[in-house]
Amino acid sequence: QRFDTLVKNGLITTAVDTYYADIGIKAGRIVALGHELGEAAEVIDAEGLWVLPGGIDAHCHLDQPLGDGAVMADGFFSGTRSAACGGTTTVMPFAAQQKGQSLRAAVDDYHRRSEGQAFIDYAFHMIVTDPTETVLKEELPALIKEGYSSFKIYMTYDDLKLNDREILNVLALARREGAMVMVHAENADCIAYLTELLTESGNTGPYYHGVAHSSIGEREASHRAISLAELVDVPVLIVHVSGTQTIEQIRWAQSRGLRVYGETCPQYLMLTAKDLDRDGFDGAKYVCSPPPRDPAAQEAVWQGLESGVFQVFSSDHAPFRFEDVKGKKLHGEHAHFEHIPNGIPGLETRLPILFSEGVVKERIDVTRFVALTATNPAKIYGLYPRKGTIAIGSDADLTLWDATAKSTIRNADLHHAVDYTPYEGLELTGRPMLTLCRGRVVSRAGEPENEAGYGEFLKCDTPQPARPRGNAKGF
Ligand code: DUC
Ligand code: ZN
Ligand code: ZN
Ligand code: ZN
């Protein structure tokens, strides 16, 4: 037989096109696109369904060691299983260096944490918190060549942040070696100053987390990151952009021809500062950094998605349980907002929310949906064209959507290990009915159908924006 699997009669959608064709799969790869392709061992009828590239969640946190006693509820097993049920076929979590630790040790440790656990494929970003001589001269250049071609840096958090000189050093390194730098852009001193004022006046509930993490501090740090990257002449990506002011900075940079990229997340479309002010301690469920803002910010984020200011839409899944971590048992019933772990879950709900709220409600085109959730992250992080598109030679990572199916988000139906979802009760139209990773079914109608250990580690190539202009693979 010519194929292992044939996906027939579906409406294929890529970042640029929508067309009817059958997909022939052999040994986990797409080997034919067309009509009347021939015999297959297994035929999947996709009549009435949209066939999209499997999602790439290029920003999520799984089993990341943390300094402060908090633990992540999801490791690679539950995290990737949950992602698969939401139509995602590749995740990119972070191998985080602790200050004083070698970067190599952090990467090795992260391989131990992920080995044999994953349902779907995965690559690593690194987090660089301690850019010593050895890290800059030896470890980073070697690791980038070995397939870890992107890393995140922080401008805030005492145990993570780099100063401007350190940022310039790592940006220069990224330029020399061809890496993508992701920046958490918030001004640490602005946060510390506002936190002190709020604490003095007794304003320590979850709502004040959003006040302390001001959009002015986010905008200032974003502008600084853009300026430092311009000085060094290197591409940079601002992660988890929360709203209007940072979008203005990114748009300004892009209009000047700078290679500045932007990422946003479901929380900035669906939540506002009001959610942090919910009854009792429930606001803690919505604490993330940067925090959700206001309805005008939500509107600006939608506009940025459609107009191309944003290239990447990620979950920023940060799996902290409410009951024993989000401030309750860890720091008492009424923990200071400073002690509430920053981050919310979202691996499984990322694609369904953007599909329903974006595509079905006609705020973004379906081709833009594919670009934001699969194709662009693959290109920006060096996984394209193996991942992120439907083309001959690409991995058979596919997700088949019923664009009219109705459902309601219930945490009880999700497959992560977090004890809540910030989107409980949200009604959705459109859902992934069948998801394949390298030709193997990994989820069906929202339920997992694979085993831990199928997912492979992916080495990342040089990110496309970091390649010389005019290179054959283009962007
Ligand atoms: N940054 C992230 O990327 N995720 C969670 C919290 C944070 O500050
Ligand atoms: Zn961050
Ligand atoms: Zn994150
Ligand atoms: Zn289930």
TrEMBL record:
Domain Amidohydrolase-related, residue spans: 50-442
GO MF term (any one): hydrolase activity, acting on carbon-nitrogen (but not peptide) bonds, in cyclic amides
InterPro entries on file: Amidohydro-rel, Hydantoinase/dihydroPyrase, Metal-dep_hydrolase_composite, Metal_Hydrolase, Metallo-dep_Hydrolases_sf
Post-translational modification: Carbamylation allows a single lysine to coordinate two divalent metal cations.
Keyword S-adenosyl-L-methionine: no
Keywords: Hydrolase, Metal-binding
Pfam short name (any one): Amidohydro_1
Source taxon at top rank: Bacteria
Chain ranges passing through the membrane: none
Sites bearing N6-carboxylysine, chain numbering: 152
Cofactor(s) of this protein: Zn(2+)
PANTHER family: COLLAPSIN RESPONSE MEDIATOR PROTEIN, HYDRANTOINASE/DIHYDROPYRIMIDINASE FAMILY MEMBER
Similarity annotation: Belongs to the metallo-dependent hydrolases superfamily. Hydantoinase/dihydropyrimidinase family.
Name of the protein in its database record: Dihydropyrimidinase
